[in-house]
Automatic annotation (TrEMBL):
<feature type="domain" description="ABC3 transporter permease C-terminal">
    <location>
        <begin position="285"/>
        <end position="398"/>
    </location>
</feature>
<keyword id="KW-1133">Transmembrane helix</keyword>
<feature type="transmembrane region" description="Helical">
    <location>
        <begin position="365"/>
        <end position="388"/>
    </location>
</feature>
<dbReference type="GO" id="GO:0005886">
    <property type="term" value="C:plasma membrane"/>
</dbReference>
<dbReference type="GO" id="GO:0022857">
    <property type="term" value="F:transmembrane transporter activity"/>
</dbReference>
<feature type="transmembrane region" description="Helical">
    <location>
        <begin position="275"/>
        <end position="305"/>
    </location>
</feature>
<feature type="transmembrane region" description="Helical">
    <location>
        <begin position="21"/>
        <end position="42"/>
    </location>
</feature>
<dbReference type="InterPro" id="IPR003838">
    <property type="entry name" value="ABC3_permease_C"/>
</dbReference>
<feature type="transmembrane region" description="Helical">
    <location>
        <begin position="326"/>
        <end position="359"/>
    </location>
</feature>
<keyword id="KW-0812">Transmembrane</keyword>
<keyword id="KW-0472">Membrane</keyword>
<dbReference type="InterPro" id="IPR025857">
    <property type="entry name" value="MacB_PCD"/>
</dbReference>
<comment type="similarity">
    <text>Belongs to the ABC-4 integral membrane protein family.</text>
</comment>
<protein>
    <recommendedName>
        <fullName>ABC transporter permease</fullName>
    </recommendedName>
</protein>
<dbReference type="Pfam" id="PF02687">
    <property type="entry name" value="FtsX"/>
</dbReference>
<keyword id="KW-1003">Cell membrane</keyword>
<feature type="domain" description="MacB-like periplasmic core">
    <location>
        <begin position="21"/>
        <end position="246"/>
    </location>
</feature>
Amino acid sequence: MNLLESVKMAAAMLAANKLRTSLTMLGIIIGNASVIATIGIGQGAQKLATDQLEALGPNVIFIVPGSRKARNSTFNLPRTLVWEDAEAIVSQVPGIKAIAPEINQRQLVSYFSQNTNALLIGTTPDYRSVRDFSVAKGRFFNEIDLQRNKRVAVLGAEIADRLFNNRNPIGEKIRAKNITFEIIGIMEPKGSFMGSNLDETVLIPLTTMANQIVGKTSPYGLELSWINAEAKNTDSIRASKFQIENLLRLRHNITDEDDFRVETSKQMLDIVGNIAGGLTVMLAVLAGISLIVGGIGVMNIMLVSVSERTQEIGLRKALGATQGDILIQFLVEAVIISVSGGIMGILTGVGIISLVGILSPLSPGISASAIILSLGISGGIGLFFGVVPAQRAAKLDPIVALRSA
């Protein structure tokens, strides 16, 4: 008997037992769908995190206040950085092109009867270029606004929509902490970063923030939430990071643990990539276990099938079928079940990925390599778990088989 005849016979036998075949394939379907969906969603999450970090700008360096111990032991970061630190960095570190210090505070922002909670950010005009923000309408505040402590504000896209409902807000007045600000610009949508929505912000001059919102809270200078620094090019990032650390240690008279931390966007990108990649692999392995469970189900059903078809096996062997013919037929049945279940599982997984892409901000990827690998594993599982039932069927003595029937 050639392979084509074995395939035809196996297909006819499986079609004759549709319910059993369908239930046997269910484990393979679930396993393949889980693998494809897990890998696709994991890649989508990794891409989302990568896009968010790359949107910060490839040459951005973040100087964050507080030691590691302080950051781990308190929710509010200690304010160990001051404006003079930022000025020293831009003037004394040759690889730094511009700096944008920040003071952040959550405030209730209102426009007549409309109220919303927003992150109020006091910063400098260089913030727009350092953080790669674009203005959609109006303008960003300038050096004159900064020097004169002007009460002007630039709204994030989402805050503008909430307060003005698609109306042009340029020239309108909003209030925050009982202070009135004139809206001079609206930012382009930026999205979320590390759990913080960058479109829920109100940007004002740093001097206005310091003098009229938070006040002077330190005798050592104007305390900052953190400092954004832009390196001149990618090649100067590493040297600039080293020089910033040494400069701040000298300025802060540090002999033990640093009271700040310097991070680059590339470091953060690598960390997020490693975490997302590790989680994807772990979830894919867990999903792969369900494929093995499905393979065990294939073996169990095939063993039952051998027991039920002893008369057929005995008759075929009495008519001249060899052990190899019987072995191939049962192996082909197991492979057909596994491959068919694999294809249906892949289609289900692709459907799940598409649904997640529609209902969430993720952009899951459908990996061709994952599909090929999953389908190959399905066929391999059919062969592996079909060997034992096929060997048992092939070794049946025809006389014993016919008598037992």
